[in-house]
Amino acid sequence: MARLLLVHRDSELDELKDKLTSVEGLDIDTVADYGQALARLEQKPFDALATTMATGLDEDLAFLEEARRFRPHIRAVFLAPSTSREEVLAALRAQVYAVFSPPFEMDRVADLVIKALQDAETDGIQVVSAAPHWITLRVRARLLTADRVVAFVDELHGRLFEESRRDDLLVAFREILLNAIEHGAGFDAEKEVVITAIRSKRALSFHFHDPGPGFPAHPLPQAASSADPISHMDYREEAGLRPGGFGMMVTRQLVDEVIYNEAGNEVLLVKHLHRAESAADGEEPLATSADQAAKSA
């Protein structure tokens, strides 16, 4: 039986608790604050913990350090009232399983809590570089780790974009990461995918480098193309491949640029920032065509 410690104050996590109580084989203990949580952790083992949004991420991380004195391998999912880039990176370095800030999508939160209960991994994401606009991660080639990475990318960069463009970016990011894990690393958990996120004044770019030999630049028979989106399905069935093959076609429609290296084991995704999105992040606003026309007048 999986055991979850829920730090639950008032009605803040009622929706999350309701979603989790229907999970078969899950035992949930509820406490009101971190003092009670530490006492409970000392008394008995837990697989994961999830916390109230009443505390800041810095306080959450201090609590986790104390909690791991009793349960070194416990996985933590933190809900915070807000997050900064520095706090999210600190959470990554501390091997927090996932971090969420408002607006909360409780289905996504519940999904990562359930994965934290199922997953024995605590070190699947390593921070290599954490300059303000240049972040590099080494990611273990596992599907569960991929879901964690997507959640952290959303916290680090998703707020740069309006909702629909944010969703497009996350779908495209996940597709490329899954391709790297499946085709580049062969789902080998001993292998890693290196991801670098670069934030410029005009765009957000993600560079993926997988450990595989790559693939040729010409269209692959197992992948859909905009010219012929369905014939690859017969090829995949005959070859015994899982259903799919739409990832790259979809990805090209969701971001502004998709660029491969010669070998095909490195990919660059580029999502341009709109003027309002760039300005909202404290960067110099981009010039629109209307601005250029006004200058020329």
Whole-number tally of structural domains: 2
Broad structural category: alpha/beta
Order of helices and strands: EHEHEHEHEHEEHHEEHHEEHH
Termini separation comes to 71 Å
Number of helices: 11
Low-confidence stretches: 283-297
Could you tell me the radius of gyration in angstroms?
Answer: 21 Å
Tally of strands = 11
CATH architecture of the largest domain: 2-Layer Sandwich
Strand content: 15-25%
Would you give an account of this structure?
The structure is a single chain. The protein is α/β, with parallel strands linked by helices. The chain has 2 domains: 1-120, 3-Layer(aba) Sandwich (Rossmann fold), CATH 3.40.50; 124-297, Heat Shock Protein 90, CATH 3.30.565.10. Helix content is 41%, strand content 21%. The protein contains 11 helices and 11 strands. It has a 6-stranded antiparallel β-sheet, with helices on one face. Strands 2-1-3-4-5 form a 5-stranded parallel β-sheet, sandwiched between helices. Helix 7 (163-184) runs antiparallel to helix 9 (247-254). The longest helix is centred in the middle third of the chain and has 22 residues, at 163-184. Mean pLDDT is 85; it is low at 283-297.
Layout of strands and helices, then pairs:
Layout (H helix, E strand, L loop, with lengths): L1 E6 L6 H8 L4 E6 L2 H10 L4 E3 L6 H14 L4 E5 L5 H9 L4 E3 L5 H13 L6 E7 L2 E7 L2 H15 L5 H22 L7 E8 L3 E7 L22 H8 L7 H8 L2 E4 L5 E7 L2 H6 L8 H8 L1
Parallel strand pairs: 1-2, 1-3, 3-4, 4-5
Antiparallel strand pairs: 6-7, 7-8, 8-9, 9-11, 10-11
Helix pairs in contact: 1-5, 2-3, 6-7, 7-9
